[in-house]
Backbone:
């Protein structure tokens, strides 16, 4: 009997019918021994619950009327994150005028279906409403704290965990903070946000959430680790770290992923995998999902996993088919791998104490990012709009190498584009160059980067690439 069938058996088996006769008792004992192992969890939420964890998804309010979508979401998941509806631009479109209509829609759908909710996100350099983007200094600091207080108070008692601060660290080798208007109010803005959130909703777990902090050897991971360690030492209220875990071939599931989870957990915080998606298909994608789920199961304080959308077609990276259901809502190989791992994978239950190995007191040496060689070879670049909303849009730019391949690329964004949020690329002025890991593109092959644009989306779809 596996640990999981034991847990299910002891927790759920109905009581034996009353019987006095010894013969019946003997029969009952035999029957108890002969009871077949209970069926494994048949949905992600059921299988995860048996391991003391939750399994969640991001939900977009405007998709809830799609019955294929809502049926899968309701059947498979028991933790819900609003993909965009609780962000700063959605909840405070004008200063001190709060709008909870779409966030509440998701909360109500979740609650009426017996699910819990992760709040995402109280303070972030991106997706700030227009009025906040224009602010700096003490007035921005107090506007941010007011936002945290008001939104956390509105949802008080209804949120399992809040992403209090999202994506505050810089990519690359610095291990330091990202520049932003919030950071320029003073680097204690993060702890101020956590204190305000705790005061407003003492029951919610308070998380720091970021991407590219999955690899333990990365400077960014180490920077976040040092902040969390400092917060725990000084009593700043923090309960969890969210690893977004957006993976693709350029940014794969790292071999030391479990070390990262263990190391954060050893600081005395929960770890939640908050925005999981893994680009790819078939058995390779399934194996990557299996590794992520197994790493979480192996660490008792890894308390839940959320995938960033339901079907591939619902994803912010739809072309990378990164989710567990295809566009028709069919279960993919990745789904089966996740379910099987939850049902059968090894690992301690949630009550096992965390590993006792002390975390390193000095961070391991970080490998400096490779210096980008000058671009060579011709390429083309095509821009598509993945998503848009009043005042902004999300764009994907596909860079395709010509016949000689590329060792680094530069793409010039169309005139009028304004962005402070680029991923898989580095921006300087209106020019985006490759990230350290995606400059090498074989002849005829493609890579891509994305950005969040402010204002209206550009009409140009063909960009200059060199
Ligand atoms: O999936 C979200 C997409 O619909 C939005 O256009 C985008 C705008 O910022 O945000 C996406 O979600 C992001 C999340 O809020 C924070 N981590 C990265 C996610 C993917 O970009």
Residues:
């Amino acid at each position: 009997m596996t640990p999981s069938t034991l847990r299910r058996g002891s927790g759920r088996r109905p009581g034996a019918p009353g019987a006095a006769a010894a013969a019946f008792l003997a029969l009952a004992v035999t029957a108890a021994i002969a009871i077949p192992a209970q069926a494994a969890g048949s949905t992600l939420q059921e299988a995860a619950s048996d391991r003391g964890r939750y399994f969640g998804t991001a939900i977009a309010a405007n998709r809830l009327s799609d019955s294929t979508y809502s049926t899968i979401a309701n059947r498979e998941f028991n933790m819900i994150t609003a993909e965009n509806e609780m962000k700063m631009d959605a909840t405070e479109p004008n200063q001190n005028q709060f709008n909870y209509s779409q966030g509440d829609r998701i909360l109500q759908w979740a609650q009426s279906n017996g699910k819990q909710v992760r709040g995402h996100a109280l303070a972030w350099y991106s997706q700030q409403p227009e009025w906040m983007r224009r602010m700096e200094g003490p007035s921005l600091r107090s506007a941010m704290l007011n936002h945290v207080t008001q939104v956390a108070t509105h949802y008080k008692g209804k949120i399992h965990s809040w992403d209090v601060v999202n994506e505050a660290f810089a990519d690359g080798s610095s291990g330091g903070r990202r520049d932003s208007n919030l950071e320029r109010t003073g680097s204690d803005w993060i702890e101020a946000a956590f204190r305000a959130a705790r005061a407003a909703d003492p029951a919610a777990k308070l998380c720091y959430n970021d991407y590219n902090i999955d690899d333990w050897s990365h400077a960014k991971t180490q920077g976040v680790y040092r902040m969390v360690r400092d917060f725990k030492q000084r009593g700043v209220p923090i309960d969890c770290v969210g690893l977004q875990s957006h993976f693709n071939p350029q940014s794969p599931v790292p071999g030391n992923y479990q070390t990262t989870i263990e190391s954060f957990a050893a600081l005395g915080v929960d770890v939640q995998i908050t925005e999981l998606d893994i680009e790819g298909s078939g058995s390779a994608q399934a194996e990557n999902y299996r590794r992520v789920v197994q790493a979480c199961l192996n660490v008792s304080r890894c308390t839940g996993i959320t995938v960033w959308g339901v079907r591939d077609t619902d994803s912010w990276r739809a072309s990378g088919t990164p989710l567990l259901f295809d566009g028709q809502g069919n279960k993919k190989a990745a789904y089966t791998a996740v379910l099987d791992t939850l049902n059968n994978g090894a690992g301690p239950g949630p009550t096992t104490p965390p590993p006792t190995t002390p975390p390193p007191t000095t961070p391991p040496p970080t490998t400096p990012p490779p210096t980008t060689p000058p671009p060579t070879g011709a390429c083309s670049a095509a821009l598509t709009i993945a998503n848009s909303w009043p005042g902004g849009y999300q764009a994907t730019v596909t860079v395709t190498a010509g016949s000689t391949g590329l060792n680094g690329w530069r793409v010039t964004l169309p005139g009028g584009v304004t962005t402070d949020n680029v991923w898989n690329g580095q921006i300087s002025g209106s020019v985006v160059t490759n990230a350290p890991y995606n400059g090498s593109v074989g002849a005829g092959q493609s890579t891509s980067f994305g950005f969040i644009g402010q204002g209206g989306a550009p009409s140009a779809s063909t960009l200059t690439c060199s």
